Amino acid sequence: MLNDTLVAFADGNPIDVLRSYPVLDKPATRALVERLFPGAAVEEIGDELLVDALNPPADVVCVGCFSGLDLVCSWGLTPRRPSELDPVVLAASERRNVYLHAAHSDAGWCSYGVWRDGSRVRALSVCADPAVVEDEGERLGFERPDTDPRELSCSSMQGLFGFACDDHERLDDVDPELIPVVAYRIRTAS
After folding, report:
1. In the predicted model, is pLDDT for residue 7 greater than 70?
2. Residue among 26, 66, 31, 22 at smallest CA distance from 46
3. What's this model's pTM, rounded to 2 decimal places?
4. CA nearest 112: which of 3, 1, 6, 26?
């Protein structure tokens, strides 16, 4: 995965839910999209697998709702700095934890944030130039000093969601090719 955007709302650890290959709650996906994009026209355009949904077109959002976990892939929700995540997004689910991950290899950029019970506990955004855009909170277990954005993208995706890019696979990885989501086209009035 060279370009990805993923927001997860979780009751616990998202990796635990993803490893169980949960059953999709399709009606809940539409309800979540409507909370995330209030007033927008929402059109269901088909089912996807998470691996194919991580880099959606600008007007598409891909959503998976499961017991204990909601996943959302949408570039329209991804700020350059995690601290700028829209409060509408943070309030879209009643789950206790929010995880944000976004990376763009062409720009040499990686960003992620973690919120627990409504409080941001980690926000990091790095790119090739300038090196660190934002760095708040204590480092997470997968973080290493002076990691380039591409390596950080892979290790953070692995650390937050249980799967990584390229050749970083481990035997206990989540398989994003087995996680279903629903794609929606979003049309806003503006």
Report:
1. yes
2. 26
3. 0.92
4. 6
